[in-house]
Structure prediction request, 227 residues.
Amino acid sequence: MTVFPDPRTYKYPDWVSIGDYIFRSHDVVAFGTKLTVKNVREAYLKGIFPWYTEGVPLPWHCPEQRAILEFDELHVPRSLKREQQRSHFTFTIDKDFRSVVKNCSAAKRPDQGGTWITPEFIDVYCDLHDRGMAHSVEAWSGSELAGGLYGVDAAGAFTGESMFYRQADASKLALLHLIDHLRRRGATWLDCQVMTPHMRALGAREIPRGKFLDLLVEAQEKGLDLF
Prediction:
């Protein structure tokens, strides 16, 4: 039994009113669906992701405009290339998933009033990690966790969730490490969900929801083993 509608055929209302909030809901397919491993798994396989908003039953998003980064269009600024060449960091995959997610939760973000990575999110995504669907990249300075990122493998397409750093450029270099890893596994792009200045600077662009869902299905049909 499925929980979420097909994002292609779902009739997105122009506005949704919930309590004191009024949403432009062209990007949301459901409100209040329970955050469980089963539901999260179904959501990502359909191109949907949860994004907590305080005071609102949990919204599940499939944005009208989706940010992706195609690896052939990757642009690494010269300053970051220099840091990559002389970096003292070592990188691992899935060595300390919970620490990465907890650090992402604690990271201060100038454009957000607080974190959307609640304790409930941490527990569910750690469960997903234990089941082989969620993954992390860690950047280490000696034995210290200097930065990292985590995301979800939607059966051959990687969706980036969040990044953090304690030392300059650690999360950016962790992302480049991830891209190199995904390329070796046969992937040609990753899902950024929504555009950020950093991802735009690396060459990410927005595409219509329908085109994104086509790319997602194509990636899933290839059956790539990303991790």
Q: What stands out?
A: The chain has a mean pLDDT of 94.
